[in-house]
Amino acid sequence: MVLISRQIGAFVKPLVFVLLDLNINVFCVIRSAGERTAGACRKLVEASLPAGRVAVVELHPFETALQECYRLGIESGATWLLTVDADVLLQPERIPELIRAAEAMPNHYVQLEGRIFDKVFGVFRQAGHRVYRVKLLPLALKSIPKPGSELRPEFSTLQELGRLGHPSRRVATVAGVHDFEQWYRDLYRKSFIHARKHRQDIVALVDRATSLAADDADFRVILKGIWDGLIDARSVSIDTNLFTERYCQALSELGLAEKEPLALEANLFGEAWLAQRMEFNPPKMAIFDMPSSTLTETASQRFKRLTEAHGVFRAACYSIASIGESSFRKVKNGFIKAD
Fold this sequence. Notes:
Layout: H1 2-20, H2 22-25, E1 26-31, H3 38-45, E2 54-57, H4 62-76, E3 80-85, E4 88-90, H5 94-103, E5 111-118, E6 123-125, E7 129-133, H6 137-143, H7 153-163, E8 168-178, H8 184-197, H9 202-212, H10 217-231, H11 244-254, H12 271-277, E9 288-290, H13 299-310, H14 312-332
Parallel strand pairs: 1-2, 1-3, 5-8
Antiparallel strand pairs: 3-7, 4-8, 5-6, 5-7, 8-9
Helix pairs in contact: 4-6, 8-10, 8-11, 9-10, 10-11, 13-14
């Protein structure tokens, strides 16, 4: 039976690649800022795509890197551009699945993203990989915000494209893992920024990190980053170069030395390694389009969708944060007048 399964697998996998014509239709850009897993990330992607269809971009600030990703996608002549952050480790067999989902999108949709299992948050969520429709990338290039003007430049770009009539799609595919085996410096920086841009998740983040810090020094660094992000009043961006001084001081206070470079032994990040880190059953998730599917969404429908994706506690936090943000904007814009 095992032999038959292997024979079927040996036949089906090449057939899927032929039908999708990945070598021609897909070009991949890995965005790297010196992540510890950059080599492993590329190795996994190249298990699905030939080296000639994979490029690495290492540019600062992030907006410049995003521009280069789009430019390379346009020049590739491919139908689809797969972008992967170097802190994401994709399962190679998930790439064809993502492309199939992209092929199923309406022609005016700009991109989709699947899910990853996130070490910091401890949940399945959208992060670190997207499949873009290349023919819409010239418009995306024009929609990138000015450097430093947005804390989430790519998200802002996609919001603008949505306003221009080109929605995005989220699918249930669990494509890999995020933020495993990272440098302490990157975990500190991300946690610092998470404290600013994911305020609704602070309680859950601290609770998770506290419960795991005794056995995993990553979470000691994460706790330090969250704390510093909450008490530091200075403005921040996602640029890695701006965190050097803060990170060095944080590691000194924690009594930690930076990790050694990651060795890329054969199969270190293979299917078994990835599966072990995704041992939890991902919650069910329906296809979710942005912004079109939310235009007529009621409050109860939104809460139900968030509950299915994140659980009741996180859904409640998201809803409360959304109400607070909406009220603040109304006050700011003069729609609510104080007596």
